[in-house]
Amino acid sequence: MDAFELNAEKRTATGRAENRRLRKSGRVPAVIYGGNGDPVMLSLEHNDLNHHLDNEAFFSHIIKIKINGGATEEAVLRDLQRHPARPFIEHADFLRIVAGETLRMSVPLHFAGEDECPGVTDEDGVIQHNMNDVEIECLPRNLPEYIEVDCSKLHLHDSVHLSELVLPEGVEIVELMGDEDEQTDRTVVSVQVPRAAIELEAEEEAEAEAAAAEAAEGEEDDAGEDDGDSGESEGEDSDEDK
Question: What CATH number belongs to 103-195?
């Protein structure tokens, strides 16, 4: 796959004050670690990094990081910290990759065929995404940009599980690795009855139950009145007999 490229500068000073200074100057504190090297503290140009983040593929691609204009490290984005209220990136973590060594990454799921799915077009269902990404394990050279989920043949109440995904060669899903009793074959996507329809059905059932209860109560009241009338008649007859 094509790699993204970032220019980075080494930094030696650390701490909150230094990080604040970097951010004010338009740079993002970062670190690269793992692989066969020691952790290296870096800083990146904020706007450049932010531009790359607009591309979904950046989160699951190999990134070439050129340090101080010289040596280049290959890595993947491992973690990203954003400001909770402002559109700023506060820190980035990169994991080195080593050819021949597997790595674990979360890659996005792309859902295909939703518009032609029989459960939606013919049976008035709606697509429900239970997962938007999946953690995989593979060699760096096999790292996919995304994994496609085919929804084109799903009927109402059908679903696709992790074990049913078509994976690129050399790619495994972490949740399906190991012994069977350790695996978690989660639902990825399903076709369900729309929530509005479920709520309407529940409302209609509640109204029907209320009407039935009211009718039953009315019948009990009528029966009680009939019993009272019978009592009075019997009393009158007794007086006449006397």
Answer: 2.170.120.20
